[in-house]
Specification:
By secondary structure, the chain is of the alpha+beta class. The protein has one domain: 2-Layer Sandwich (Alpha-Beta Plaits). The protein is built from 2 helices and 6 strands. It has a 4-stranded antiparallel sheet, covered by helices on one side. A two-stranded antiparallel ribbon has the order 3-4. A hairpin with a 6-residue loop joins strand 3 and strand 4. The relative contact order is 0.32.
């Protein structure tokens, strides 16, 4: 069984949600993760808050530091989870259930994690 990372991208990352919206979304997310954990396929995960974030960007004059997580992309990375799955198709099925997909333009990127021994 392989491990896959599900990366949550929010196109509307700059929008401010109400505390009630955040609480409802967190419950949906915890329920979704709980369903994966009940199958013994949840490995770990974290949110990526916007505060205290920097982007270090390569330029022809050397690295430049930009305040905030936004850089040159229109979406923001909201977090990730790591799951165990038999195939990328199974990991995609987990991703399809993510509450992140309720936001128009949001996405979940699914990537296989390379093993530390150099094998894929």
């Amino acid at each position: 069984m392989d491990e896959f990372i599900l990366i949550f991208r929010h196109e509307d990352g700059m929008k401010v949600a109400s505390p009630e919206q955040i609480q409802a979304w967190m419950k949906q997310t915890m329920d979704w993760i709980g369903g994966i954990a009940a199958q013994n396929k949840f490995v770990s995960g974290n949110g990526l808050p916007f505060e205290n974030a920097r982007v270090v960007k390569a330029t022809d004059t050397g690295p430049v530091v930009i305040n905030g997580p936004f850089g040159d992309i229109k979406e923001t990375l909201g977090g990730y989870i790591i799951v165990k799955a038999e195939s990328v198709e199974e990991a995609v099925e987990f991703a399809k259930g993510s509450p992140v997909l309720q936001g128009e333009g949001n996405s979940v990127e699914v990537r296989k994690i390379a093993r530390g021994d150099g094998t894929h």
